[in-house]
Specification:
Length: 230
């Protein structure tokens, strides 16, 4: 859905001024953060972040950073990121040890949590500011980051990996070796993604282009309809 809508979103962001973009951000945080997260309204998946609306908002935030990011001072991004992370971590600790409420804990980790969104945006800017474009090793690995996320978030793959680890090691060892196992999982994801890139990238690119063309056609039809109505 996001591939189809990306053409419309790109046109939308091209026509926006910076003030309009900031108003859009404020409205988006009220909708997703206030109505969806704080009030926990499940309509259209607003309370979880697993929705096309949330995906479109994140896409537009990324497009806005690309368009106006150079005009924004990001030197203090790391300090802000640490502060936001500390606040959210503190809230999680309160929910675990003081309120002893697992539901609150899981909601604080949800994609709809505005603090999580701010953390992600700041982390992106920190990474961009590192200026590691000359490091070929990092560049080769970084293109597989999304694949490692997919492998880790896929229930079948993640559960299969967990069951394999627990078959070989005890639970205590698995917990103690959590970071090395995460590294193994990342290597596994890189191998899968490398095979996928070699076999399917060209076909995937053609499909994406056709879907984007379909989105452009829909956008033109909407424009024509609006002109007729006007």
């Amino acid at each position: 859905m996001l591939i189809i809508l990306s053409s419309i979103l790109n046109k939308y962001i091209e026509r926006m001024e910076k003030k309009e973009f900031l108003k859009f951000l404020a409205s988006a945080f009220l909708l997703l953060g206030g109505y969806g997260f704080i009030l926990n309204k499940p309509q259209l998946g607003l309370n979880s972040g697993y929705s096309i609306i949330a995906a479109c908002v994140l896409y537009l935030i990324g497009a806005g950073i690309k368009k106006w990011g150079k005009s924004i001072e990001w030197d203090k991004a790391f300090i802000f990121w640490l502060g936001i992370t500390a606040i959210n971590f503190g809230l999680i600790m309160l929910s675990v040890f003081f309120f002893q409420n697992l539901k609150i804990t899981m909601r604080l980790l949800a994609y709809s949590n505005p603090l999580i969104v701010i953390q992600a945006v700041l982390f992106l800017k920190i990474f961009i500011n590192l200026k590691m474009e000359t490091n070929n090793y990092i560049n080769k690995l970084s293109k597989h980051s999304l694949a490692s996320y997919y492998v880790n978030s896929s229930n079948w793959l993640a559960m299969s990996f967990k069951n394999l680890i627990l078959l070989i090691f005890s639970m205590e060892t698995a917990v103690a070796m959590l970071i090395p196992f995460a590294g193994v999982l990342f290597i596994f994801a890189v191998i899968i993604d490398s095979i996928k890139c070699h076999l399917f990238d060209r076909a995937e690119l053609k499909i994406c282009k056709k879907l984007q063309s379909f989105g452009k056609i829909i956008f033109r039809r909407i424009q024509d309809l609006m002109s007729i109505i006007a």
